[in-house]
Amino acid sequence: MTTDPLVLKQAVAQAAIDYIEPWLTPDAVIGVGTGSTADLFIDALCVKRQLFRAAVASSERTADRLRQGGVTVLNLNDVVSMPVYVDGADEINPALEMIKGGGGALTREKIVASVSERFLCIVDTSKQVEWLGQFPLPIEVLPMAVASVMRRALALGGQPILRTGFVTDNGNPIIDVAGLKILDAAGLEAELDHLPGVVTNGIFALRRADVALVAGPRGIETLLSH
Ligand code: 5RP
C-alpha cells in the first residue's frame, strides 16, 4: 500500500463509512468533523445519504460540503443524541487523546462530539505520537483575553503565537502554543479551560476518541480506547 497522504486519507475515510454503516439508519443523525480528512469522509458519506436522516456539522465549511452533497444539516439544538461523531485529528496518542483545531473548528468539534455516543477518529500514521504537544496546541479565546492567555501559556513553558488573519466560525481568535510536552492531557485540558477568556482548548482528552482508524502503508489499523 502507498504512503501518499491523500491516498491514505481516502482509504481511512472509506474505512470510516464501512465502520459506521450499522448506525446509518433512517432515524440516525451523524456528527461530522472538519478538515481535509473529514472532507473525504463527507464525500463518501454523501453517497450513502439515503440511509440516514441528517448530519450535524462542526463548522460552516463542513455544513456547506454536506449540503452540496445532498445531506440535510441540522442545528445541534434540535438533536438529542447521535450514534457517532467522525473527525480527524492533528495528533493522537496511544490513549486516543488528541490535539485538534489545526483547522480552527475545535470549539464546535468539541461540542458536537460531546453529544455523540461514540467518537471515531480517522487519521493516517503521521498523526500518531507518543505524547501530545509536538503539534502547536490551538486555544480559542475571546478577543480581550489574547494577551492574558498568551502570558499564561508562556508561564506553562509554551511559546504562544496568535494565528494571524484568522477568526473562528464563532468570531474569535486562536492562539497556537508550541513547545508543550503534554504528559497529563486531561489535567492540562481542564486547567486551560478554566482560564478566564478561554473558549476551548484543542486537547481532546476528557472526551477522547473511542475508536481510531489509522491508515498506514500496511492498511487500516483499528485502535480501541481502554
Ligand atoms: C480541525 C481539526 C482537524 O481534524 C485537524 O486539523 C486534522 O485535519 P486534517 O484532516 O486536514 O489533517 O481539528 O479543527
Could you list some keywords that capture this structure?
Rossmann fold; Alpha-Beta Plaits; binds ribulose-5-phosphate; 226 residues; 6 helices; 2 domains; 6-stranded mixed sheet; 13 strands; alpha/beta
Bound molecules: ribulose-5-phosphate
Q: Helices and strands, in N-to-C order?
A: HEHEHEEEHEEHEEHEEEE
Mean pLDDT: 97
CATH hierarchy: architecture of the largest domain: 3-Layer(aba) Sandwich
Give a quick summary of the entry.
The protein is built from 6 helices and 13 strands. With 226 residues, it is of the alpha/beta class.
Topology record:
Layout: H1 5-20, E1 29-32, H2 36-47, E2 54-57, H3 60-68, E3 85-87, E4 91-92, E5 98-99, H4 106-114, E6 119-124, E7 137-141, H5 146-155, E8 159-162, E9 174-178, H6 185-193, E10 198-201, E11 203-204, E12 211-216, E13 219-224
Parallel strand pairs: 1-2, 1-3, 3-6, 6-12
Antiparallel strand pairs: 4-5, 5-11, 7-9, 7-10, 8-9, 12-13
Helix pairs in contact: 1-2
Bound molecules: ribulose-5-phosphate.
Structure description:
The protein is built from six helices and 13 strands. The relative contact order is 0.18. α1 (about 5-20) crosses α2. The chain has helices spanning about 5-20, 35-45, 60-70, 105-115, 145-155, 185-195; strands at about 30, 55, 85, 90, 100, 120-125, 135-140, 160, 175-180, 200, 205, 210-215, 220-225. The strands form three sheets. It has a six-stranded mixed sheet, sandwiched between helices. The chain has a four-stranded antiparallel sheet with strand order 8-9-7-10. A three-stranded antiparallel sheet has the order 4-5-11, with helices on one face. The protein is globular, with a radius of gyration of 17 Å. The chain has about 230 residues and is α/β, with parallel strands linked by helices. The chain has two domains: about 5-125 and about 205-225, 3-Layer(aba) Sandwich (Rossmann fold); about 135-200, ACT domain (Alpha-Beta Plaits). The structure holds ribulose-5-phosphate. Ribulose-5-phosphate binds next to α2 and α4.
